[in-house]
Amino acid sequence: MEPNRAPSPLVEHLNQKGSSFADLCSECGKCAEVCPVIRESSPILQQAKPTQVIGDVVKVLRGESASEYAKTWAEICTGSGKCISHCPEGINPRLMLSITLSKIRKEQTVSRENPLNGFYRRMSQIIKLAAGMQMTPEEYKRITGATGNPENAEFIFYIGCNVIRTPVIVFTAMDILDQLGVEYAMLGGNANCCGIIHLKWHGDANAAGKMNSNTVDKMAALNPKKVLHWCPTCVLQFGETVDGYKPYPFDFQHFSDYLFSRLDSIAPRLKPIKRRVALHSHDGGLSIGKSVEKILDAIPGLELVEFEEHEHWAYNCGPGALNNVESMRRDAHMQTLKSAVAAGADTVATLYHTCHRDLCVFEKQFPVEVLNWTQIVSESLSLPEHPDLYKSMKLQDEVAVAIDDASEFIKMNNLDVEALKSALPEMMLGKDEGISLW
Ligand code: SF4
Ligand code: SF4
User: Fold this and answer.
1) pLDDT tens-digit profile of 229-253?
2) What domain range includes position 81?
3) Does ligand 1 have an atom closer than 6 angstroms to the CB of 54?
4) Residue with the nearest Cα to atom 2 of ligand 1?
5) FRET pair for 404, CA 20 to 30 Å: which of 134, 261, 311, 355?
6) What are phi and psi of 158, to 5 degrees?
């Protein structure tokens, strides 16, 4: 295994990328023309010429202040990736906008005008509270890799930080790996962040670089051949935004792509289940949705229904993606549920944890069961079912009842009940970090 070289500061790396994009860009405007957030949700940007919008982005990359056009586009980009294949110069406009947003946030932070200052602290607190209501301290240590890792496992299952709010997904995915006889170490939690929040929310590329570099070092110390991702944001952060900043002495693959590559081993173990499933998906230029579709399609008795949804609007449902634009998020979710029910689905399968957090609450309104796709695979493999305590909490109307239901875990984890009382109303409404809009 090659030793890691000392990384150059991430800020320099991104400045170089940004400058080369600015030099290459012909300002043809094709990326802005095809962008769904401009088309669907931004009257300000719709009034502008696409060439002017991208021209203003290029100016930010050259060191000028951001115009309203550049700021608006960078802030509402949902990472859909629709623009990528349309650039005649081979630029990735999604990455171009990520770098632009980081620069804008940095300026806002310096001038104390960043509305998202403190976002990482708030997010960490919400993860701690949500996780602490749903699992024992031992389970938390196990899923974040603090205990229980085998030595020299071939794989790391790197879960990132946010999926910890929905431990049902982590426990279920681990069961599936166990069933396949995969030897893996776990890594995740706030202390093992990919650095995205510091980069894109706070504009602090130095802190983001250190976090990312520390996490890569922890991965390398476990000596794996492959790191299996769960979180799509980590996929983009490692595979696109900071790609080239620090060498990785191992391969990355998404959990779903890995399972799909093992379909020959999985398929004979799948037992029939009777479900009509609407698979909620995202494109984002990633193969994850397609892999999950093929895995679910291999389950005997399960019928994947065709329905209409806006899978091209964002790379996932969470903050930094569909959650950036309230109207799009609301329209996309309503379309998904209405269309799934009209197509006769009895189950909506969520793709990511962010989608699960948003969509599980629709069980109140629509006659469907909302499950993560891993839960459906687990059911077909006859693995033990883990309770979805996050969904139960969100389906509650009363904060006091939600606290009472979780009282054992709250005690075990020494959670501050007053902090829970103030955070839970927003968490139960899906406003987990206080910035989600419904
Ligand atoms: S990634 Fe999607 S939302 Fe972002 S600029 Fe490209 S097309 Fe627009
Ligand atoms: S499509 Fe490519 S070359 Fe054209 S404006 Fe967008 S980034 Fe620049």
Assistant:
1) 999 999 999 999 999 888 899 999 9
2) 10-110
3) no
4) 80
5) 355
6) -95, 110
